[in-house]
Amino acid sequence: MPPSSPFEERLNLMSRMNALPLATFNKLVFVLSPPPGLLPPPSAPQSDRVCALMEWARGTGGCGLERVISVLEVVSSTVSQEQTSVNLERLWNVPYERNAFFTGRDTQLGQLHEALQNVGKAAVSGMPGVGKTQLAIEYAYLQREEYRYVFWVKAETQKC
């Protein structure tokens, strides 16, 4: 088997950290000791915190990805192998819970589904506050079993 690329290694590392229970991720952060204020607050999606931690670790003032990997091995040893392993058959990293109060919007959900099935990509656009994120979240949960890989990617900046 050929060695994995640096991109694949980073993706695997990010997936492993995103899959950690919050308490275990917080242990990892504590041991790595990034500068105060570097990470988003604990209330932020874990994927945002993972991205910031990876960016810091890879940077000139960071601890290096090798250190992140070694600390991850130690802090995750208390979590069962089942919880920390990455199932490459299915990957899911939607950082939001499903909205129990989401109703309606069947037309938009159908249009989104049709575009993704026929074209393979879709964009949800509109004014701020109209529910674009909620629509995407609901679609992701409704169609979860139809997709092997579901990645929630922030497109506000080119970071991480």
Summarize, please.
The chain has 160 residues and is mainly α.
Q: How is this structure best described in words?
A:
The protein is mainly alpha-helical and 160 residues long. It has 2 domains: 6-84; 100-146, no CATH class. 48% of the residues lie in helices and 4% in strands. It has 7 helices and 2 strands; from the N terminus they run αααααβααβ. It has helices at 6-19, 22-32, 46-58, 65-75, 81-84, 106-118, 132-142; strands at 91-93, 149-151. The chain has a two-stranded parallel ribbon. It is elongated and about 50 Å long. The model has no long low-confidence stretch (mean pLDDT 80).
Shape: elongated
* C-alpha-based Rg, rounded: 18 Å
Structural class: mainly alpha
Q: Count of DSSP E strands? A: 2
Strand content: under 5%
What distance lies between the first and last C-alpha atoms, to the nearest angstrom? 27 Å
The succession of helices and strands, N to C, reads HHHHHEHHE
Strand order within the widest beta sheet: 1-2
